[in-house]
Design brief:
The protein is of the alpha+beta class and about 160 residues long. The chain is built from three helices and seven strands, in the order βαβββαβαββ. Strands 1-2-3-4-5-7-6 form a seven-stranded mixed β-sheet, sandwiched between helices.
Length: about 160
């Protein structure tokens, strides 16, 4: 049984140390950069022993900066997430993602969700489609200049 709990400094520190390989290294963070995780919008996803498996972010902090204007409205709850690198490819992504959606649905009392995902991340996109999300538009990240899909779901 997994748990979703408020982010702690120790969990944020561990996340800052995660290193993804290949094209997924795009998601690597600066080691020791934990402040962004301590804003009250980030939550840790742990196993029953308290070992960190992943994290979620809910709300405006989950949005990406875009070249295009007026991409995000407040009709949907934005969700961001990350799965520990050694857990990727183990077929747990859908269960992890659904746990986060179920949590957000209870806590934020919404059925309307939105996320932003790098176009190259086919692995994650497959999970999101299985969870009921569909691509609504393609945008350009104003910081990295790469393409992202905006995906929505009403549960």
């Amino acid at each position: 049984m997994a748990n979703i709990v408020p982010m702690t400094k120790e969990y944020a520190r561990l996340i800052s140390l995660w290193k993804y390989e290949g094209k997924y290294s795009f998601y690597n963070q600066s080691e020791g950069n934990i402040e962004g995780y301590m804003d009250g919008t980030h939550f840790s996803y742990t196993n029953e022993d308290g070992k960190l498996i992943g994290y979620f972010c809910f709300g405006k902090e989950a949005r990406i900066p875009t070249v295009e204007e007026d991409i995000y409205d407040d009709d949907f709850l934005d969700i961001g997430l990350g799965l520990r690198p050694d857990m990727c490819g183990r077929q747990i992504g859908l269960a992890f993602f659904n746990d986060g959606l179920d949590y957000a649905q209870r806590v934020f009392n919404t059925k309307k969700f939105r996320l932003s995902v790098a176009v190259f991340n086919e692995r994650a996109i497959k999970v999101y489609i299985k969870a009921g999300f569909c691509v609504t538009q393609e945008v350009t990240n104003s910081y990295f200049k790469n393409k992202f899909f905006i995906m929505n779901c009403i549960r």
